[in-house]
Design goal:
By secondary structure, the chain is mostly helical. It is built from nine helices and no strands.
Length: 206
Amino acid sequence: MKEGNEKQRNHRHDRKRQRKIEIVETALALFSKEGFYATTIPDIAKAMGMSTGNLYNYFPSKEALAQEIIRYVSSLLGERIHAINLEPISTHEKIRRIVRFYFELCIEKPETIEYFLRVYLANREVFGEGCEGMVCVAPFMTEMMIFFEEGVRSKELRNQDFFSAFGLFMGYLGGMAFLNGERILPRSLPEYADEIAENIYRALRA
């Protein structure tokens, strides 16, 4: 009997967790397209086919949902960069892999990059309490720190302030993502990956 109850609790927990992920992904798409302030909780509930009251059972506020989304995006980025960090390859090649992955993500899941640029960076007041500093982007930032530290240790990258190096790296990626989103680029974004990776490596190498 106890075993059966435990299974039921686990099943309900899994269903609730999956529902939360679905809400996060739906809100991510809406926030990225319409903006944080133009999107309401009723808009998200309608897109989910659920009542507004039920959605509040999962997230107490729009701000709480926005913070959960940036954690979700950061985890997605962090997991992929973690896998690249574990590969027995040069820092030069890691840069290529990171750039290719980022550009592929811009094509396959543009809402994740749009959210980071249009919501997280543009509406910092939403990410105050609970998301101070790098708290909500820790998985991503941690893996980038590891990447830079290993690059310096291998003597492929010069030793410099992390945020200077990170800003340069992400400046290239964010700039290209913006140009792609504005449909300015004459070629597809992935076609620029190796060239951008080489520019980043030259700018950071020892």
